[in-house]
Each structure stands twice: as structure tokens, then as C-alpha cells.
Amino acid sequence: LATILALASLAHGGSNGLGQTPQMGWSTWNAYGCEIDADIIIESAKQLADQMKPFGYEYLNIDDCWQAAERNAQGVLEANKTRFPDGLKAVVDQIHDLGLKAGIYSSAGTMTCGRKIGSLDHEETDAQSWADAGFDYLKYDNCFAQGRSGTPQFSYDRYNKMATALNNTGRPIFYSLCNWGEDGPWNFASTIANSWRISGDITNSFNREDDRCPCTSVVEGDCNTQGYHCSVEKIANFAAPLGQKAAPGGWNDLDSLEVGVSVGEGLTLDESVTHFTLWSMMKSPLIQGPVFADLSSQDRAVLTNEHVIAINQDPGSTPAIRLQSGKQQVWQSTLSNDSYAVALVNFGESKWDVELPLSEVFFDDRKLAKASWTAYDLWSDTDFQNPPRKPGQSKLQGMSVQGKL
Amino acid sequence: LATILALASLAHGGSNGLGQTPQMGWSTWNAYGCEIDADIIIESAKQLADQMKPFGYEYLNIDDCWQAAERNAQGVLEANKTRFPDGLKAVVDQIHDLGLKAGIYSSAGTMTCGRKIGSLDHEETDAQSWADAGFDYLKYDNCFAQGRSGTPQFSYDRYNKMATALNNTGRPIFYSLCNWGEDGPWNFASTIANSWRISGDITNSFNREDDRCPCTSVVEGDCNTQGYHCSVEKIANFAAPLGQKAAPGGWNDLDSLEVGVSVGEGLTLDESVTHFTLWSMMKSPLIQGPVFADLSSQDRAVLTNEHVIAINQDPGSTPAIRLQSGKQQVWQSTLSNDSYAVALVNFGESKWDVELPLSEVFFDDRKLAKASWTAYDLWSDTDFQNPPRKPGQSKLQGMSVQGKL
Amino acid sequence: LATILALASLAHGGSNGLGQTPQMGWSTWNAYGCEIDADIIIESAKQLADQMKPFGYEYLNIDDCWQAAERNAQGVLEANKTRFPDGLKAVVDQIHDLGLKAGIYSSAGTMTCGRKIGSLDHEETDAQSWADAGFDYLKYDNCFAQGRSGTPQFSYDRYNKMATALNNTGRPIFYSLCNWGEDGPWNFASTIANSWRISGDITNSFNREDDRCPCTSVVEGDCNTQGYHCSVEKIANFAAPLGQKAAPGGWNDLDSLEVGVSVGEGLTLDESVTHFTLWSMMKSPLIQGPVFADLSSQDRAVLTNEHVIAINQDPGSTPAIRLQSGKQQVWQSTLSNDSYAVALVNFGESKWDVELPLSEVFFDDRKLAKASWTAYDLWSDTDFQNPPRKPGQSKLQGMSVQGKL
Amino acid sequence: LATILALASLAHGGSNGLGQTPQMGWSTWNAYGCEIDADIIIESAKQLADQMKPFGYEYLNIDDCWQAAERNAQGVLEANKTRFPDGLKAVVDQIHDLGLKAGIYSSAGTMTCGRKIGSLDHEETDAQSWADAGFDYLKYDNCFAQGRSGTPQFSYDRYNKMATALNNTGRPIFYSLCNWGEDGPWNFASTIANSWRISGDITNSFNREDDRCPCTSVVEGDCNTQGYHCSVEKIANFAAPLGQKAAPGGWNDLDSLEVGVSVGEGLTLDESVTHFTLWSMMKSPLIQGPVFADLSSQDRAVLTNEHVIAINQDPGSTPAIRLQSGKQQVWQSTLSNDSYAVALVNFGESKWDVELPLSEVFFDDRKLAKASWTAYDLWSDTDFQNPPRKPGQSKLQGMSVQGKL
């Protein structure tokens, strides 16, 4: 027993063995918000299984607003009877039958962000009910936390209760911690969760500064209001120092993908390519959010670029580091097989004439800087021409000494 | 029972059901400071009932300095006998007879800010005595708190004691938490209070930087000295990211209105219009402070602009977001009935030639940006000419696709 | 009894009734550091009584290094036998016989800053031994605190133990808290201490930036290393927002006076005048540190300017507020009898041609701005000519509508 | 007993009596990382004893990855059997036989940074096993700490457990605390540890800004991600205010020496000289990391400059203070025998024409500024010419009034 416990305590990302690569899937939130029901979920699951599972997207995540208005007489939190007339288990079974995995949502607070019943101080009961229904995944939010934060200790204690409850069910349940980076979960949660959000909520804006995402850093300054309406650029800048904290079993979550999400400001194709490139290279979870019926072929091509997904899912790749910051950025990922990926990203408003010597790409390794490389444009086989370096664009190159990736 | 408790715990803004729209009223502090007595209060209540209640102002709030010098033999904190010879209940009864509600004041410390007896560690006793006297509202301050702060947890614990004590009385008492934004009450207090101050005390200055209000942000930097003499501009800037935290039941409190307050630097009419516009759009409580006998007709017109108050009290409106920051600002509120309010605010010292395309006002919704709008100047029917965009001015437009607001 | 306790709990600055005006005195530290003994102290006391007591300086404070190397068998911390052959009480008696009061020093840590035995977890024993010896004053430092800080709660708890211990002796002992501003003592300590340091240690430099005093603010940014070698300018800037927190019974301590202290960089006469002006106007304690035998007549004149001391000791004056910041500053104090003091301070390296309209001095009171004033130069009767506005200089004017101060 | 305890509690740097000067030695990490075994260690120890011990380097420190995959049945953490077939004690014995001291490594977390078993909540067991094996030194890291940080109190409690456990073994074991400066160990750990890291991990870059070392200050801003890839310049800037916190028994640890470390960007000879100069003057531990067989004669000359080492090990010298900051810096150390060391350091990219008057070097002591000095170039007897002030260079002068150092 002692041996088993010791081994269990050695896992990065909790002791459930999950998350060896970042999770991929689809969530109800961006497409449907609170307006979900069993039919929508099953229809979406079918499309996810049909169109996206071949590329690796496997989680169908039910986000907020599935809950009944009150706990039942036994204290169990059941699904809303109108929206889920047959209960959650029936939906989960159908998701499983499609070859997918099923995710659920709650908050480590008295209420969820959508003001439904939360799981704070009901961790054991709720974890068990989700395990009983067959769920494989929990996104655990941070609204209405009764002030139980402010030091890593307080936040760890609150989120560890659910980690323990999930483990106690005996069912492996992917634990997606979502406290918006408060108190630095990349430090305190890497032994208990499989991923952790690092910032306020993303919106589908490429680089708009928005008061509602007011933090200027997630590592300094003790921001107490992570907020929402964070742009792709802002979250990428937040994430730059944090790749060092991720590893198989536990990942930095840069929030869901805005590719093909129609509500809001919206991303151009170039911006979507940049967004997907960076999320993949930083080994963020890839959780989509479109209404499948409305997804353009261009956006579909972005979300299913196998070369880029391969970077994200490469068991031997490391989260990208940023070699150059500011409005024009250079990112580099180490891949398996002595290969590398390099992305040039233009968040600015002007054209960027970039020339990047290998001595900069491999500034800390002279051998690599002098090697002969074969470079591949990882976006060239999508259905759009590879453009010059315009505002909003990024270029992603895979480089290999072996001549293959 | 379990059901009832579960429901109770789901309330935003405490479980008392109050504060479905921001509170409106009048407080003794700005007009009279510590120099209050029963006569002043009853006379003010009469004027409030007569002049302001028709516009929605309903709370007559007794602020600091009502207390006796010591608790009585039973530990109860009674009113100062000289100032309130018949006790508080007699005053409250008269306030109620005028159709108003009555508010009282204390501090979550050993002393109030005016160095009278505070309620820290006497929460149950004091809440019961206020309920017994018939009070409907408590402003609960933060002076002399014995160091019980520094993390949301510590502040929550201290303020939750009074929330619980108020609820235990069985009387619905509006809970106006006033800890000056320390430890981020918009995060920790939204389930226990009906409003929470977000910053140090306001003064009647439009945009003067004053050392005594030293924080540069309320969301980053962990300021420990919220202070006072904060200008309208400074508090508006503090509030910009926080609208997302307010909802029916619990509101960001930008502090009382300085319109018509004669002590201090003072506001011009343009500045008063701007102040009232912003407080209304951000859905701040509207608590006035003038000596009614001294209130000019212009200031009275500002405080009673029904169009602007309607924005504040619209059950379907959301706290304004800021679209443009700096010295020249643009704010937008979503109103009921597919209508919107847009304010242009000039905090600078120079004239502002502004042209605001609809694509900026509705930057995240292309349909709205292309719709046809009817726009109303919500200040045009007051007794002053609608001016050009001078320093200190603001322009508030209501926009509706239906052609009415 | 309940009444007495209630009253006691209402005191600002502890319940000992002391500190109705800022303390004035002399400390051994700047002149002698660790090299103190009974003879030095008694000789200094004689000179303090003779030369300085007529101007209000009454405390003879024994700073660090009076301690024996270990506690005695009963756990009592006695004086070093070599330096104090007759013990502390004999010295205190002589200090008292000179009409002075006597101060002692310790640290709320395991060691003092001079690495002698500290009082942490020995509060009751040490407080009683100081009371037994007849001490009237304790400076309580912050070195080697075993990590018991980081929130106001932790610091309050540590320092409140000594406050309670001092009160329990029954002897009124002035409590000079010295935690260098950590966790904001102006917030948490104002009910338990008579003064509290706000920053790292002063050095006798007027405006030199020194890495060893690394904080850039005492109200924001959570500085963990208050340090030393803080200049007069830096501490004045730190103090600017904090005057609002001081009141009779508890004062912001800007650290001891460097006037006439010969070790280190040193102050010019102009700089000493500025230093003494600001400390007096901010109602800081005035604790001198020179070797009396080496004190120049000019420095003596600065330290004994009765007009300036009167501002500091005026029971009705309020800590100065700063009207203008930067390198050229304007400060204003409200004095008794409808009088005011205004100081113009030049921390810069260039000449300052200043013209200050009354509308700026009284920006928030139009009546005062339009009144007729009689102005006095409060430094004109010292033994140096009142100079123009050169670098390092300050000008201090007292203004009165009655024609007298 | 009380006396003994009192004395014990008075030690700076723990009560083990060690660390009267900064530790000197060699660690396995930079040369071998996780790929260590008994043979490598013993071979390295022989070379350390042979080549470096004459200059003062005495600790052979086994860093991470010595551990077995699990604790044994008694809960003891043994060495990896493959890498250490005869166990740790056999290796330690051979290290001791070479006249060296032996160091070991663990983390105050559930795992070490290399994801091996950590010592959190196993402090007594592990300390005893290291004492039993004869270790003289522990480097105690900060990975996977389960959120037990965020205030000095929390970090102190976690690290004090190991300090107590080490002391309880009865064996003097140098305690090298490595929490990357979190919560300010120079404040909370100086009574329990012999050295404490102040920042994220160093890399062998002279002045490259790297996102992975994201803190901008270690004294303000509450950085939660200390990271790695910190340059020599960045750590020197972090250290500048902290010299005041070090003293015999407890030292600021600026991290290991990168001189001669071949992995990574690398340092030029000028940069190595600067690095070694600053670490020595700041009285940082001097822990080398090269593969001895690959060490160039130039780098060897840097690491064994007796004049510079003498500054570091001078029992009477104080950690350097910085007189001038920015890209061109001036540092000064006070040495024994009325001597001083002055270093001019150029972190910039351009040539620096510097003239430094004695009045700046001794800005706070006019006597010294006017004295006659004999100056020595402490790098002139190495095997390279003393160069002009080029980018990356530093010049180190020893100055003495007696004409000798």
C-alpha cells in the first residue's frame, strides 16, 4: 500500500494517469451558452464524432446550465428535468456509443458562473454522481468561491478537495481546473489537475485591448480580477513564461478555441491560423466551440490541420518558448525526432519584414544553428494561399535535420 | 429544509432578496458629517420624501456618529441620548411613515471611521438591535479592523459574520458593504452583500489627482491604502473593469453622489452631468448627499433626470462597459428592449472633436453596427443647453432600433 | 467593567492614553550604535535635559545592544553587566531625576537587528521587566520575525502580543512600533500603538537613490524588503498619502532626525531645514540622534526652532497634505486657530521659480482662497539668511487670518 | 537548558554554526543533470579534490536524480540501486576520504524538480537517512510544494520543518534553502538556513532577456513564477538590494557558477570574469558546475583567481553594494584591514568611457574619499590581458590605504 501511495503521489497532473497529451474536444458553451439540452448535445456529438474525431477531438463537454434548480432530497445535484428528460446518464451513454468521451461542468463555489448550483462543500457527492453517470471529464470553474483564495494554499485546498473526490470515485476523470490563473495554478495544481486555465476568458478578438480583461500579467502584480474578453494576443503574452510548468499529465489551458465561433468581433482567417498555431505549439488543450452546421470550410481546415495538431499531440514536444516578444513575435517548439517548429506571429498593425537567422532560432545551441535544415510550411496545404507577413498573420515552419517531421 | 437552504445559498447579493436594482437614497454624511440629530434627520426625510422619492430615492440613511459613547449594561449599542432623545426607533418610525426606508451605519472594526463604537465581534447583538428598531439598510464600514484582512478569505470571514447576523434577524436588511475594495469584494462578497464599495472615498473633485487617494488600480498591485479624496475620474477608471461582477442582488458601489455637495472643490454643471451619467450607467447605487435647502435647481435637475435614472434602474440593463479609455472615453450600456446608451466623456483639459462610428460602438456585433438607430440626447430636456464637447463635459445618447427607449 | 473595557477599546493609538502629540526625544542609535553604556546614556541625558528639554524633547531612548548575551535562569532578559554594572533601573532612575522619560528597545523576533536576544514569544516577561525598571517607552523592531508576516492579520497578531503585554503591566508605556511599514501598520496598528514606522531606515542623505532602500511605494506593490539608506526625499514621498491615518494617540513615524548626525553623506543646512520642516508638518515623531558635543550651532538652531516644533505639537494641527508632487513640492498643514502652514520644497537639482496662488493652496475652499492672510517665514529668525529657492531648500510659511499664529 | 536554547536561537543562519563564509564546491547538475551515478560522482570528486580544493572548493554536491523510484517498506528514501549499487554511504565515505564534504538534494514538495520523490511531510525520516549516510550539506528545492506558500509564514513553516529535522539529527548539515526567492527567504529564513536562493535558475547567458525568467523584481510585485534561464545580469540586478540581509551563517545564493559550463548560450571570457567578480563580491556561494575534463585553462583561471576568492571568503568583508545601476554599474565591497574592492561592470552593448572619482566610491565617507589609495587590478595576473572597457567586461580593483590587501 505504501508503495502504491508513493507512486500515486509522484504523478504530475494528478494520479489519474490522464492527459499524457493535451485534451482535444468540443464544448457546448461558445455555441449554445446556457441554452443546452439533450438533443443539442447528442446532435453535436454526432457531428463531432463524424467530422472531428478523426483528427483527435474526442471530448464532448457539457458546460454550464445542465443543473436542476435545487439538489434533491439526498443532496444530489441532478440534471434539469426539462432539458434532460432522461437524465445525464442516458446522454453520456449515447456519447460513449459514438466513440467519444463525455465531460461535465461545475464550479468550486456556491454557484456556477451561470448562477446555477455549485459544488463547493459538496465535492464527494457531486464527483460520485458524475462518475455514476459515466463522465470522463470535469471542467471545474471558480465563480462565487466565498473568498477561499488569495494564497496558493487557500486555492490548492479548495481545488484539491475535488481532485481527491474524483480520485475516490475510482473512475478516471480528466480534471480540467478553471480558476483563471488565480494564485498561480501552474505552481500549486500541477500534481492534482490535468490542465489549468491561466487567465480570464478568451473572446474571439485577435488583439483588442478590453477593460474587462484587466490584468497586465499573470505572474506579477497579484491581479484579483481575471475577467473575460481577453484577446488571442493577450492570452499568448500571458502564456509565454508558463510553458516550463506543463508536462505530460498537466497542461496550461489557454482557454477554448475561437476558430469558427460566430458571436462577437470575430477572427479573420489569418488570425484563426495564428490562434490555432499558438495554442497548438504551447500545448494548450484544443477545445473547439463552433456550431458545426455554421462552420466554414476555411475554419474547418484550420481546426483540422493535421501537421499543426501533430505538434500539439507529439508526446515528445515541449511547450513553445518565445524567442522574440512585442508586436512581432517568434516562437519555437522542440519536437520529437530532432525536429523543431518555428512560428512568426504579427500582432501589429503594420507589415513586418522579417529575416530570422538560424543563430537566433537556436541561440543557445551552436550545433543546431550550424546544421542544415529542411523546412516545411505547415499551413501550405490548407485551402488558402500562404500569404506574406501581413498584420494578423503568422507563418509556421517545421524544421527537421532528417528531412522529415 | 435542505431545499430552502440550497435555494438561499444560490442568491447573488445575499439571500435577502433585496437590491434587484441599485439602491437610491440620501445619506447624512456629506451634508452633516458627525453633526446629526433626530431633528435634522426627520427634516431631511421629509424633503427626501417630498422632492426625491417620486424619482426613486427611497432610503434615508443615518451615517456615522449616531452612537452612544459606550455600550449599555447588556452590551447593546444605543443611540446618543442627546442627539436622539427618543431613541432610534422613534426616528425610524417617522421615516417609515413618510413612505421611506431607513438606513443605519457601523464599521467592521473596533471603532467606526468617526471613532465611535464599532461592531466587530458584536455582530449578532448589533444586527438584532437594528432589526428591532426597524432599520432596512446597513452601511458597514472598514475602519479599525484589527488587521483582519489581506486575503479574500480574511475579509470574507469578517464581513460574512454581519451578513449572517442580519439574515438571522429575519428582517430583510439591505447590506451595503463598505470595505473600499480591499481584497476585491466584487469577488468574495457578491453572495453575501447587496452592494460593495470598490475604492476609497469620493470627493467632489472632477479629475484632480490627490495623494490621499493613492491607489493606481483596484485590480492589480495590492494597494493597502484606499484613502479618500478620490475624484470622479479616478473612481470611474477604477470601476471600468468591474461591471462584469455586478448583477441584480449585488452591485458595485462607486460611492455617493457629489452633485450639489457644497463642501470642497466642487463640480461644475457639466461635471455633475458626467458624474451622474457614469454612476447611472455603471449601475452604481445612487445615494445623494446635499443639504436640500441649498440644492440649486440645476443640480436638482441633474439628480432627477428620469431618463438617466431609468438606465440605472432598468431591470434589464447591464453595467456599462468602456469602449475607449484615456482622457476621452466612450461608454456603452445595454438596455432593455434592444436599446443602448452611449456616453462620450471628456476628462481632459482640451476640446475633443469626436466622431464615433457605429462600428466602434458595436464592435462585436456586425448586425447592430449596420442597423438603423434612433438616437436621443438624454440630457436635452434639462434646464441647460446641450453643450459642445468641452472639457469636463459628457454627452449621453440613448439609441433604439424601435424608435423608443 | 464592561464600560471600562468598551472605553479602552475605543482609543486610537492603544488604550494607554499616550501620544496625544508626536513624541520628542533622543535615541542612542545614530550617535553611538551598539557602543552604549550607562555613562554615555547618563551624560547624554544630562545634555538632553539641559539643552533640548526646554523645547519639548523629553524621551531618552536606549536603543539596541543593552542586552545581556542570554536570558537569566528565570527567563528574564537583563542588561549587559559590563555596560550597565548597576542594571537598567539605576539608569532609568537617573533619567527620571533629570525630568526626562526613559525608553528601551527590542525586536518582535528571535533576535534584534543588532543580533541580540529578541522578545518574540517572551512578550509578557520582557514587558514586565521593563515596567519594573521604570521605562516609559518601547521601540519594538522587526528583525528575525520567523516569517510571521505577509498579511495585516499575521503582523497585527505579532505586534498586538506586545501591546497587550505592555498594557497588562499597568504602567503607561509609549509603544513605538517599528515594522518598517510592512503590511501597512497605519491600518492595522492604529488601535494598539502610539506610533508606527512607515518605511525602511533613514540615512543622512537628502535625495540619493540607494539600492538598499528598494521599495518604490509603501501603499502598492507589496514590497518585502524595506531596507535602509532611505533618503529624506524618499521617505517624504512614502509618507505623502499616509497623513490621513494619524491622529492623537497614534502617529506615522518617518524615522529619526538626521539633523546633526555626522556619520554618512550628511545634510547641508538647507537640507536639514527641509527635513525638519517636513517631519514637523507631517506630525512625525521628532527623535534626534546627534552626539551633543559635536552639534553645530546651526543644526542646534534647526532642531530647536520653536515655530516649527509648534506645528508638530499643535494639538489641533493635522498631518500635512501634499498639494504638488514631483521634484518641486508644496505641502500644507491645517493648524489651530484658523491658521495654516505651507511649505515649498525643492528636491531637484535646479532652481525653482515658484509662484503659488492662494487658489492652489486652498483649492478646496473658496472662502479661504479669497481671504486676506498674514504670512510669516518660520525660519527667518534662525541664524542664517532666508535664501532663494535653491536646490535642497524649502520655505515654510505660516499663514493666519487673525494676524497671529 | 534554557540558556543553551536561548543561545541556539540567536544564530543567524540556523544554529548549526556552519556557513561562516559562503560555501564553495561543485554540483553534479550543470555537468550531468539527471545522468549521474556513483562512478561519475567519485571521478568528479577526485578532480575537485585535486584541482579545486586548494582554492577552497570543498563540497561535492549530489543534485537531483539519485533517488530510488519509491520509498522502501520503512518509508526511507534510498538511492537508485542501478546508479548507486553500494548505496549513498559508500559514495560519501569516498568523498570524505578525499578530504571533501558531501552534499545531497531534495525538494520541499511531493516531487523534486526532476520528478523524483520529494521530502515534503517526510522531513524527519529523510534528514536522518542523510545524516546516517554522512552527508554534510542539503540543497532543498521548491518544486511541487502543494501550494504551501504565498506568505512568509507558510514558506517558513515548510522550510523550518527540514531545518528542525536536520538539527535533530545531531550532525551539522549545511542547509542550502532553494525556494527561488519566493516570499523573501532573506527575511524569513536567515535564522534557519545557511544560504537561500534569491531568484529563478541561472543559465549561461550574460544578459539575454528570456520570457522563462519573468520576474522583474524580487522585492516588489509578488512574482509567482521565478522560472529559469535567468541571465547573469538579471540575477545581479535582483541581488543588488539584498546584501544587507546576508551575514556569517546565512548568505544570499545567486545560484551556481556558469563559468565553463558548455551547454547553452555560453559566456565569453570577459563575461565569465564579470560573473565571477560579482558573485564573489556579493558573497554568494561559489558552486561550480563544469565537466572538469572539458574545462579550458582560461575558465580554470577564472574559477581559481585567489584574489577574487579572497574577497568572497574574507571573514570581514561585506556583500557588495551597488553605487551605480543601469547597464554600466559600479559595485563596492568593504574588505578587512581597511581595504575595499570596486568593480566596474558593463552589461551594455556599447563601450563605456568611465571615470569614477573617489568622492563617488566613498560618497558617504569624506575621510575615505580624501585618502591616498593603492589600487590593484585583481584580474591582471590571469592568463589574459586586462582589456579596456568593452561590452561584457568588468574591471575589479582592490584598494587599500595600507598598500596591501
Describe the structure.
The structure is a homotetramer of 405-residue chains. With 405 residues, chain A is α/β, with parallel strands linked by helices. The first copy, chain A, has 13 helices and 13 strands. Chain A has an 8-stranded parallel β-sheet. In chain A, helix 3 runs parallel beside helix 4 (87-97) and helix 5 (123-133) packs across helix 6 (152-168). Mean pLDDT of chain A is 92; it is low at 1-9 and 382-388. The interface between A and B is large, with 38 and 43 residues.
| CATH fold field value of the largest domain in chain A | TIM Barrel
Per the principal axes of the C-alpha atoms, what is the gross shape of chain A? globular
Q: Which quaternary structure do these chains form? A: homotetramer
Strand content of chain A: 15-25%
What is the count of distinct domains of chain A? 2
Q: Give me the Rg of chain A, rounded.
A: 21 Å
Contiguous uncertain segments of 5+ residues of chain A: 1-9, 382-388
From N to C, what is the helix and strand string of chain A? HEHHEHEHEHEHEHEHEHHEEEHHEE
CATH secondary-structure class of the largest domain in chain A: Alpha Beta
Considering DSSP H and I runs of 4 or more, what fraction of the residues of chain A is helical? 25-40%
| Major interchain interface with per-chain residue totals | A-B, 38 and 43 residues
The number of helices of chain A is 13
The strand order across the widest sheet of chain A is 7-6-5-4-3-2-1-8
CATH homologous superfamily title of the largest domain in chain A: Aldolase class I
Q: Helices and strands of chain A: which structural class?
A: alpha/beta
What's the CATH architecture name of the largest domain in chain A? Alpha-Beta Barrel
Biggest sheet of chain A, open or closed, and with what strands and sense? 8 strands, parallel
In angstroms, what separates the terminal alpha carbons of chain A? 43 Å
- Kindly state the number of beta strands of chain A: 13
